[in-house]
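From: lab user (bench 3)
To: helpdesk
Subject: output format question, protein + iron/sulfur cluster

Hello, I'm new to running complex predictions and I'm not sure whether the block I got back is the full result or only part of it. Here's what I submitted:
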Amino acid sequence: MTESETEPQAKSTNREELEQVVIRFAGDSGDGMQLTGGEFTRTSAVMGNDLATFPDFPAEIRAPAGTLPGVSAFQLRFSNFDIHTPGDHPDVLVAMNPAALKVHLRELKKDGILLLNTAKFRPADLKKAKYEQNPLEDGSLEGWRVIKVDLEKLTHEALAESPLDKRSKDRCKNMYALGILYWLFSRDMEPSLRYIETKFGKKLPEVAAANKRVLQSGFNYADISGIFQTAYKVAPATFMKPGRYRNIMGSQAMCLGLVAASKQSGLPIMLGSYPITPASEVLHQLSSYKHHGVVTFQAEDEIAAVCAAIGASYVGKIGITSTSGPGLALKAEAIGLAVMTELPLVVINVQRAGPSTGLPTKTEQADLLQAMFGRNGECPVVVLSATMPSDAFDISFEAVRIALKHMTPVILLSDGYIANGAEPWLIPNAADLPEINVEFATAPPEGEEFQPYARDPETLARPWALPGTPGLMHRIGGLEKQDGTGNISYDPDNHEHMVKTRAEKVARVANDIPPATTIGPESGDVLVLGWGSTRGAITGAVTRLQKAGHKVSGCSIQYLNPLPPNLESLMRSFDKVILPEMNMGQLSLLLRARFLIDIESFCKVQGQPFSSDEIEERVLASLAEVK
Amino acid sequence: MSSSGVSLNKKDYKSDQDVRWCPGCGDYGILNSVQAAFADMGKDPAKTLIISGIGCSSRFPYYMNTYGFHTIHGRAPALATGAKLANPDLDVWVVTGDGDGLSIGGNHLIHALRRNVGVKVLLFNNRIYGLTKGQYSPTSEQGKMTKSTPLGSVDFPFKPIALALGARASFVARSIDIMGKHLEEMLKRADEHEGTAFIEIYQNCNIFNDGAYASFTEKAVRPNRILEVEHGKPLIFGAERNQALRFTENLEPQIVKVGEGGVDAGDLLPWDVHNPNSALAMALANLDEAQFPVPIGVLRSISRQAYETGVTSQIAIAQERKTETLDELLTGGETWEVK
Ligand code: SF4
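Helpdesk reply: Thanks, we reran it on our side. This is the complete output you should expect:
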């Protein structure tokens, strides 16, 4: 394989200009759909498109091949304009087998392109997917532009000369499909060829050669076979702020934010974590930053993970723990200890569908109340949430900043959709990041006793007194403290005073956060309010409604406790507030109770994100009621 | 002498808090021994961190003029692991009990032991729950009558030192609250050890389980009932020093007479705390206390890298191999420019 075989652009065929395309790759868990989708994404990012992705994989690592539960999918949307979601209905569906077809066909747009791998439509395959008849023959695919390709046969032909065994050759077929789509959408093949080379080149040169060859063959096949009448182009996005971009996934951005906060505060990170879907990526990512002084500790369980982080915080490091909902439940008592001992701590919860084990690989926002209240006693913590992959960086930086400055645990929410989703990210300059100033306690003047629970008059934070410092020896613990001295106190008035002080300390964080901002004017008929990963769908819906002339604005908040100080007046500036949430109305419940505002809750609990369409429809229905 | 060159004595380790254990509790003796040993070792109170869980024993840090963290039930070893990893220069001690360390916190204890984190674990074993007012614990003998077991406990108990050996602990010792000098010696040996040092301390709870150890700790019977294990010496005990414990090929324990009409002292195997094979230590740890003398002392002390040393050196190597500015990190792999 030489570089000269690379032909970035096709020569023939008309190229029609499109504004955006949504593609969904679907196949067996073993078909490499995540990798294929990921490659298309990276390439499109490098070509300057805006994009959003949605990986959707089964809970089992490898469900039986060819069955419905084993279907793994990856959707991506790329465009020449500003987009916020991976799109509602795909324009193109690649189905590697009948099971993938069955699960995903109903979402494919009418007249959309359906690329089918005919090699996998044998009677046995159809049976596994519970098809009574062959959909290729019974007319059920009418209305879609069906492209039938025997990916297996073509892959083997392309690899006739390759020394690989049959199985290894089979595994290259996803690259054939990718090559076809690269031709169809005029993608540059260089980034993928480079990637294959770096991934396999050194260790498995034959595998690298085979993958590159198959990718190229898929591209050439689409060009010469005439299976498509038209090919397409999507120009680079033009709205984007100038600067250097990279493609980034939510969990990755979150980890970079943590490391950046570590650099800006001069304190190393100590992560205690226990593997759990979909949060393990945080553990993996941070474990690869040892050269930035990051210590990661894979603990024996969720409780040990958070306790180790608290131990690290006590001695002056940035203690962080990462988990998902079931793990947060296990950490509850320890978070209470951090509240009582008033130590900084960051608890990352990448939410998944619950209760109990629930749907581990599916997304949900149903841990908000757990984050707020899921501990014994009056136990306030700061609660923040990422809203999209690219803002996970800022919000994790912010979580560390608040924890250190206010001496408080911060629960940072994300979810499977944000964590695994990807989009372009405007890379910040390190020089533009704020410093995080940390002051450790020093010995008091001669004759004065050190007061571990003395308070900063502005934030009410107590001093951070590190073991190892002469003259500051003190004892802390989970028993109620006397304010100031920190000694154990059973005094009833002191207890009430401390409960209120801990609440006030968290409430005062509101003085230290930005106001909520709106998409559109700050008053009108309807405010679509959200938090977390609904932001993309809300933005998409609100933008369309505004274009249609409706007085609808959107707002997506990252600060959940305390709330942005202007939120109440903002809500009161609209006739209606509609709040879509992937839960049974948890933020609605909080806001209604707090502000007595009659918020309309719009819930979806299917383990799937909202689409912009769903929100748009709901708002239109609500507007119709008003009129 | 402390590391700062100031000579310290016992009272320098006493905090200003009133000690609140029941009068007569074995915890007083342990506190006294710890303070005496710390003074002898010249520990710098500012560099010493004592971490405990929940229970009577776990009030310990409040009474020591060092840094202290009274955490939550069972979790002290986990918290201590984090603290030691985050600052290996600190001298970290864990104080726990049979309920705290073996019941609710059993998982953390065994994992700390296998990792060999450089913390010293003092497990006060009184074979009862004291702070919750007298329920049987995981070390209570079978048939124990308590408020929660009016007909006697059915559970089979742990032997903490056997559990520690099973968790592949690198240092395992046992001592007794009322044997102050012995306990101080054990604390010093633990202090010198690299990695986790585990000391089980038999402690009398005179309120809920008084006399739990009287059958071998009473002055009159002690010489015949307690076997002081010492490195390099055979397992000899008895007022006359004429009895010995030895093990058959099948590791069955036997008591033999030494000297006249018995075996020759020179034929007895000297105890080796560094023996990489833990089988003999395990056999000793599992002795039935009704039939055999009760072993105290260091049973095992082997050399293994402390966990934090391994973790810290990985970081140092990674930092040596790769320097990356924050800008380089953020930029990552493939990027593109929007003009
Ligand atoms: S209850 Fe028992 S262990 Fe607890 S302080 Fe009293 S005597 Fe000591």
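A quick orientation on your result: Chain B touches chain A through 60 residues (CB under 8 Å). Let us know if anything else is unclear.
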